[in-house]
Amino acid sequence: MFNQTKHKSRTTHTWQVWAIYMVLAANLSEEQVLKQACPSCDATQLCNCSSMGLDFIPPGLTGKITVLNLAHNRIKHIRSQDLQQAVNLRALLLQFNEISLIDRDSFHSLGKLELLDLSNNSLAHLSPAWFGHLFSLQHLHLQGNSYRDLGKNSPFSSLRNLSSLYLGNPQFSTIRQGNFEGIELLDKLWIDGGNLSQYEPGSLKSIKKINHMIINLRNTSVFSAVVRDLVYSVTWLEVREIKLKIENKSLVQNSTLPFRIRKLTFKDASFTDYYISRIIILLKEITSLQELDAVDCVLDGTGQWNTIELASSGQSFVETVSIINMMIQHFHLFSDLEGMESQIHKLKRLTIASSRVFMVSCNLAKHFSSLLYLDFHDNLLVNNRLNETICEHAWPSLQTLNVSQNSLKSLKQTASSVSRLTKLINLDISQNKFGEIPDVCEWPKTLKYLNLSSTQIPKLTTCIPSTLEVLDVSANNLREFGLQLPFLRELYLAKNQLKTLPGAASIPNLVAMSVRRNKLNSFSREEFESFKKMELLDASDNNFICSCDFLSFIQQQAGVAQVLVGWPDKYVCDSPLAVRGAQVGAVHLSLMECHRSLVVSLACALVFVVILVLVAVGYKYHAVWYLRMTWAWLQAKRKPKRAPPKDICYDAFVSYSENDSDWVENIMVRELEQACPPFRLCLHKRDFVPGKWIVDNIIDSIEKSHKTLFVLSEHFVQSEWCKYELDFSHFRLFDENNDAAILVLLEPIQSKAIPKRFCKLRKIMNTKTYLEWPPEEEQQEMFWENLKGALKL
């Protein structure tokens, strides 16, 4: 019984192991398939399978993946099991596929999904079942499919956290009541309804609040109905592609609800003079509307608006109007808008850009009594027309004026025109062609900000007002900056030709400065610290010379990194060549590169010390003597070892000290030269050739003598010339291996008293016999006989 139980247990365990193995093998196989289909999915939370030519969602997706990108493939069908294991998915991107079929429960496991993009596929309808379990979904993109409506009910009823919704396509034609049930708040709603023809009133009312709604519309009746629904819920409504032919019917229903809409934008729309008047009148009913924009629109008209009806319809509440890139075919025939004066009193901000404006009538300009901001950039204003536009008492409250990118050419005339704006603070006249500027200009006394960038100014003069707090003169041809601007806090000098930082004394209150893309090579600690209040300095994109002083300052100065804008990426060395292209903060030069003069000085000092040491050592060990003797020996070597017999003139050359001359000349010479037969002796006093180099005399005398007779004494050892004579005899003695040298000791002398450099001579004294001059007279006869015998050998 026990054995059967044991066998049964073992069998069960085997089957469990086998089952686990099969599951692991299946998972491993699926992971391998996934890895082959999407290599980027390997061990990452982001799985990018876009543009891989996939026909299906690859198997093997796990709970590790949080972002799955399957865009730009050929997927047609999303099956129930495809995403079942991807329970932690946060973003699923399926745009630009061929999806036409989605199983009801395909997204049921994606409870954490926040972004779903199904745009630009082939979905013919939308099913609420797809989105029923997407409780965390915030962003849903469904535009660019083929559905014609959203169904009879709301497909979004369970999406309580939805923040942005993109809908519609060229076939989208119908919106019904209840289609947006369940959505209460949206940050952005985009409906592509270019062919939207049926809109049931109240369809969008279920959404209580929409921050920004974009809708493409061509049907003006649908536009009116949409506006009626949205004035209570949307903050910013943007209408695109509409050809406005609005009906003469109120846009506001009788309701006690407060209006919410603040901004209305028309983009790529077209208007006529008649419908411009109608829309202005109808929009006055929306008392909450404060901002009106027209971008990339077309006006088929010349400004012949119904000003009488406009005036009788009451005051507009709009405070901001922006007209950008308005196409007016006959703009040169456009009217001066006489009669519109009553409609502009409350306007505070006006932008008319890129719309070929060339002037505003003086009478109309005087009625912009509340206008604070005026932007006329990228138009056709010239100085004469600007002078008419800013006539006396025009724009009385204006604080900011932008007339950049026009056709202004005289800075003096421009300054004179704007000087009539007594409250002007900010002036942008950049991207005009001023060129040379005068020394004196008249400006508003309140002016604090001036933008003169890209105006082809080669040099700044005192025309620039001293009241400025912000000055932008970027992208000119400036080579220096020396203006006295005591109140200046910000200075922009980018894209000029400056080689040094401006002087801080003339701009003591500067807080921020840009010298980006100039010809700045470096700046010193003193220049940097002279700006006492500097908080931001943009010196990026210059060609820095990474000298040792510059690197030492820029890398070690406390707080530099916090002040420099773009540090360290935008600060790159241009030289030395070895570090070109490297970041300034990462360059470290060697000691030799940083302290070249010091290193050279130390090297010279070291060489001098070495020479000094060599001289001292040479002096101590008689190096000079060795050099002299080597030179003399080389000279002697070039001569024959022994002179021919016919050139032998003397029996002996006598080498002696001048202090021993009395004994040599009065005793020895007399004794030897008067002997029978007499000996011929060579004495330097008597026989040296006058004018001949003394060394040559010594060598010649030794070579022309049979013997060399050295009279040794303490004086001889100390004599320099005796040393030479001894040396040359030394060479001859050992070169020829003979007994040419005769040593006579005039007085007792120790062999160690002879200099050590005459080692061979000392050896001779130790190994050969030498003659000693006896002080006793009875022994002197024997001395002379021995000496004569030595001379005869």
TrEMBL record:
Disulfide bridges in this chain: C41-C47, C362-C391, C441-C463
Keyword set, alphabetical order: Disulfide bond, Glycoprotein, Immunity, Inflammatory response, Innate immunity, Leucine-rich repeat, Membrane, NAD, Receptor, Repeat, Signal, Transmembrane, Transmembrane helix
Annotated signal peptide: 1-25
Places the protein is found: Membrane
Membrane topology of the entry: Single-pass type I membrane protein
GO molecular function, one term: triacyl lipopeptide binding
Sequence intervals crossing the membrane: 598-619
InterPro entries registered for this protein in UniProt: Cys-rich_flank_reg_C, EF_Hand_1_Ca_BS, Leu-rich_rpt, Leu-rich_rpt_typical-subtyp, LRR_dom_sf, TIR_dom, Toll-like_receptor, Toll_tir_struct_dom_sf
GO cellular component, one term: receptor complex
Coiled-coil intervals, chain numbering: none
Biological processes, Gene Ontology terms: inflammatory response; innate immune response; toll-like receptor signaling pathway
Domain of life: Eukaryota
TIR domain segment(s): 648-791
Task performed by this protein: Cooperates with LY96 to mediate the innate immune response to bacterial lipoproteins and other microbial cell wall components. Cooperates with TLR1 or TLR6 to mediate the innate immune response to bacterial lipoproteins or lipopeptides. Acts via MYD88 and TRAF6, leading to NF-kappa-B activation, cytokine secretion and the inflammatory response.
Entry's family note: Belongs to the Toll-like receptor family.
Binding partners and assembly: Binds MYD88 (via TIR domain).
Name of the molecule in the record: Toll-like receptor 2
Species this chain originates from: Mycteria americana (Wood stork)
